[in-house]
Design a protein that fits this description.
CATH class of chain B: Alpha Beta
Helix content of chain B: 40-55%
CATH topology of chain B: Rossmann fold
Shape of chain A: elongated
Strand order of the largest sheet of chain B: 3-2-1-4-5
CATH superfamily of chain B: HUPs
Oligomer: heterodimer
CATH topology of the largest domain in chain A: Amino acid/polyamine transporter I
Radius of gyration of chain A: 32 Å
Strand content of chain B: 15-25%
Structural class of chain B: alpha/beta
InterPro entries (chain B): Rossmann-like_a/b/a_fold, UspA
CATH superfamily of the largest domain in chain A: Amino acid/polyamine transporter I
Number of strands of chain A: 12
CATH architecture of chain B: 3-Layer(aba) Sandwich
Strand order of the largest sheet of chain A: 5-4-3-6-7-12-11-8-9-10
Largest sheet of chain B: 5 strands, parallel
Largest sheet of chain A: 10 strands, mixed
Protein name (chain B): Universal stress protein
Pfam families (chain B): Usp
Distance between the termini of chain A: 47 Å
Radius of gyration of chain B: 15 Å
Number of domains of chain B: 1
Shape of chain B: globular
Amino acid sequence: MTDEELAKDLGPLAALTIGIGTMIGAGIFVLPGAAVKEAGPLAAGAFVLGGIIAIFTAASASELGTAMPKSGGAYYYINHALGPLFGSVAGWGNWMGLAFASAFYMTGFGQYVVTFLPVPSLSIAGITISGVKLVALAGGALFVFINYVGAKETGKLQNAIVLILLAILAVFTVFGLLNADLAKLRPFVPPDKGISPLLPVTGLVFVSYLGFVQITSVAEEIKDPGKNLPRAVLGSVIIVTAVYALVLVTVLAAVDNSLVAGNETAVVDVARHLIGPVGAGAMLFGGLLATASSANASILASSRINFAMGRDQIVSSELNEIHPRFGTPYRSIGITGGFILLFILLADVGTLANAGSVLHLIIYGLLNVALIVMRVSDPEDYQPDYRVPLYPFTPIIGAITSFALIAFFANTIVLLAVGFVVFAMIWYAVYARGKATKQGILGKYILSRSEQMPDAAVSATTSFQPDGGYRVMVPLANPESEADLIKLAGSVAKARNGTLVGVHIEQVPDQTALESAREEFDFAEADELLEQARIDADKLGVPIETHTVLSHRSFEEVFDAAETYNADLMVMGWGPDSHGAPGRAESAIEEMTHSLSYDVLVLKDRGFDPSRVLVPTAGGPDSDLSASVATVMQEFYDSDVTLLHVADDKQEGEAFLREWAEERDLGDAKLVVETGDVERAIESHAADCSLLFIGATERGLLSRLVRGALVLNVVDDVECSVLLAEQSRQRSLRERLFGSD
Amino acid sequence: MTDEVESLFSRPLLPLANEADAEASCAAAAPRIVAEDGHAYVVHVIEKAGGAPDKASVEQRETVAEDIFSLARGVATEAGIELDTDLRFGTDVGDAILDAAEDIDATAIVFTPRGGRSWWDLFSGDVRDRLVRDSDRPVVVLPAQHADHSETTDGET
């Protein structure tokens, strides 16, 4: 077996049981009592309606899952499509939604335990904790602990549990059918209330339909996801809906409504009535298994969501540290566990169910919107194996029904949902926006068509774009220049409180597919280079992230990478072997460098020594970049900065240069004004300096440099290192964020 | 006769469980590998549940593996040793390590102690015992070199 096959070891049945195992606990073992109390036999209709709403979203989740089989599932798709603002809402929603749901499952677990084990309530400091809650707390702690130490046996147990549950429910249903009396189902709709309880009860029982989306959170582990993921997601919703409806209808047809209504462990009593003590025992056992497996699967899924959120800097990636011994994301699981226990303490079972439902409904709505965004913007790499039928109706109906159902919750729950969305958005604005770098497809789409889009949409999009601080990208190609480039780039990054982004581009021959190169290539050299960069950045005390990019092109990829990693400044070396030879597509390079959305510094490295810096200037905006880098050198390396201006009239020149220097915080620099030939003046002063700055005095410096068409005698004639600076072509925020469109 | 036997450290395989382990094992083994002019191999195993969801995301643990390998490469580069890395997936960590040793015909499997026997061996299974019991090649346990490692009491080294 290849590593790929070993890493993706979830077969179709395992994927299906994650969905069924998470869902089946709540619906049939905990909720019938409350649902029937509100709606009578119509409760069965509420379960079916919940299933129908879920199936639309399940279709969307399947398509997104086959296109992006990544860890994190629903959160990942929403963040990817709608950007980190909505990503924050979805991530927090999914995380807390699962914590509420787990608290709900555990409370259900407690209700089952106290039927055979009388647990007294506990009073501490005037607060009474019921026996049910005590068991729920203990159970919650147990399952958090199991996931914390990562007992891999629990995962396999899940498959067995689901099969046992289905068997128990099948036997139960058969007994129910034998005793069924359709007359007991009438009146199907409660005569006093009409169908008005239908939607609120659907909202309550919707917590039974959270499981399918958890399948997508482990999508990266599923074997052949193109086929198995949609089958598992859609299959689990269909199976679970059918089981809920069938079981509930037979229960209500077999016994009096009053036996079920308001009964927390209704199915146990119904089984005792129909089958006797053995039936009751089996259902009790089933209830314990079901609630436990739901909670266990939810805790596991929430740590995947945390990981995906950390990967996108929505939360600190420290949350996702792996335990050195257990190999589990212990912090994430521990914190999730804390939330679960807190929610068990604070809220009753109905509130927990409602909160879990409402947060997931927000995610489901967004998930459908995400699908529409992906279809409309149709990015090149969006190639789902499964496509939702009847697009665009399916996701539109999915979005509308999901969002609309929220309105039928109690006001307090709606308020909780709104408050939660506001919290997640504030979280993004205050915490995550300065860190997140990943832009959503929607944002890119709107900004790339800013002329056609309404101004309000464009400005809203612009103001919500992620802004991961000042980012200095350094393409690293060879070990000789690495240290110097990191020193230069690191000092600029440090001066601006920014981050270094070290990128190594590994050129792959055209005939080798990138995917197979990823597996077969030996990256030891690249890793060493990047490791060295990390060490050097550490010495400077500058945060650094490093990436290895596989590409068929080498030089062109540098510019793509700068876009991908949202660089504000690129610092690159320039030498015969710096970044490979540019490809044939000269016009493409022209295009890329013509509309730079970031500043560029190119170092002709003859030993990086910033002690004596010479900055020739002719004024104009293009030497501003040189000036600002010079101030960094001054501050960081105590450089002696000399400014050189060549003028026709010496006095005018001096006046100009003094003003220019002061405006750019270089008042303390040594000012030199010469007359005569510019190149000769630069060369003669360069003899005394260790680093010469050359600002781009005309457009297209970089593209000509790339093509080897640039003949700058100065660069070859001087003996010191030369730094060429080309300023971004775009200064407006909108353009800086998105190319020349 | 002895000249036909390869030295233990000419082609050693170092199984690395985590960053602290990587640091300790590589530091302890490096001078011995240098002395034999050997070629080092390191392996990290991502434990799979084999048909059930894993305890942590694969991508997440691949990142951890990368950090572990970087550390090992750093030590190797400093010592001037050739080093190859091997990332494996397996439901049984011990098996995967033994397979890795077989594939390169390792002259020894080398590791440093990872703290005392602990109650959670019950959960994780004891890889060390498995290696000692089932390996058909020498297994070398090196003392961790630095004082600060042996002082760690929580079993993370």
